Amino acid sequence: MGLFLGKIIGLYEIALIIRIVLSWVPHNPYNQAIQFLYKITDPVLNPVRRYIPTFRGIDFSPIVVFIGLGIVKRIIIGMF
């Protein structure tokens, strides 16, 4: 069970990486795949953005989310 949840978190981390890369390149925000990506990543990123503002146009919220997900993954895998 712990390995399964760890793999799910790993997939979510990949989704975050794709979202970060998309922020650097022009893309169609109305594409269904991109909207799905926003839909699954925004619920985690938006609360973090409320507490950590952008600094000179750089959004540090994905870094904080990656750190948090890493901690959660280690705890979950360690429990099982």
Describe it.
This protein has 80 residues and is an all-alpha fold. Helix content is 78%, strand content 0%. The chain has three helices and no strands. It has helices spanning 2-24, 32-51, 61-79. Helix 1 packs antiparallel against helix 3 (61-79). The longest helix is centred in the N-terminal third of the chain and has 23 residues, at 2-24. The termini are close together. The mean pLDDT is 93.
Please tally the helical runs, counting DSSP H or I stretches of 4 or more residues: 3
Uncertain stretches of 5 or more adjacent residues: none
**What would the average pLDDT be, to the nearest integer?**
93
What is the succession of H and E elements? HHH
What oligomeric state best describes the polypeptide chains here?
single chain
Describe the global form: globular
Short description:
With 80 residues, this protein is mainly α. Helix content is 78%, strand content 0%.
Features:
3 helices; 80 residues; mainly alpha; 78% helix
Secondary-structure map:
Blueprint: H1 2-24, H2 32-51, H3 61-79
Helix pairs in contact: 1-2, 1-3, 2-3
